[in-house]
């Protein structure tokens, strides 16, 4: 072997060792540790996970994250399926898990138009309730659920998605018409926040929605926050869901979103982060669970695995997004991913059922993806 060859060989061996060391140290590294000076890093847990049926997911959640949100199990239909029946089994497990691991626990969600049974809005004869009766029902629900976890659930998504992204009728504005708004009137939002505060005066209270990177949504969020503040009603933060794609929102849109919303004087949090890598069947960018499309083969191109170039695109996208989060760490309190691993993600079922999506940092075997290392790199670089 001549001198040049042995140099090349040496460099090769050295590089391999470096890569191995890097990978090994990154595997040791955790998201919660990497961003501990900046914001909490959370995940959403589902029923099967909290009931102990997927121990690997729980183990990963405990290792990587310092905050948890229930994915569905505290929604009205799950926790209060019938007028006189509450089911706290899964929620109790979630709270125990969070406390055991010293996590910031988020309650999601008290008042929403979706995943709320029809009976909530009807009397015993199936006729729509009057305002006072529905307020009473809302108050009871909030007091029962928030009261049960008083001092243990630290923050609540009190109202979810009360604003539409593109109002159909400009004169009516962008307040979403739901049974809550139609029966109670626009002050249902104030009432929900009041009741939650009564039930646990120390809990943080949030408004949660999607598409805040669009100006119209932000204008209405500003109205909502000032309306609550003008009436001396507690609101601590705005949850920005963060169901985003590889090409939206743009960097400028995200920057403007943070710039505008950080003026409101409440905390900001990314509450349901995932990045869709599959083709979109429409220009719809929101997270409206009622929107559905028929499957076609071209909408499910990665059924057998995500190609390397897509892994790279996803990693780059996460890196860009986390650089922006890091830049706005003074107003950003928490970044929560909507799920632990790709297999858990709702994006395998929405807006088309039965696709194979790859929106998170851990794959279906709970292994870190290139996107995980890209996110950690942001924390490393910014030290
Ligand atoms: C919305 C809700 C969440 C969840 C997602 C989809 O963003 O806030 O609770 O239902 O849709 O999983």
TrEMBL record:
UniProt record similarity statement: Belongs to the glycosyl hydrolase 10 (cellulase F) family.
InterPro entries for this protein: GH, GH10, GH10_AS, GH10_dom
Protein name from the UniProt record: Beta-xylanase
Keywords: Carbohydrate metabolism, Glycosidase, Hydrolase, Polysaccharide degradation, Xylan degradation
GO biological process: xylan catabolic process
Short name of one Pfam family: Glyco_hydro_10
Reaction equations catalysed: Endohydrolysis of (1->4)-beta-D-xylosidic linkages in xylans
Active site, UniProt feature: 272 (nucleophile)
EC number: 3.2.1.8
GO MF term (any one): endo-1,4-beta-xylanase activity
Domain annotation GH10: ranges: 25-378
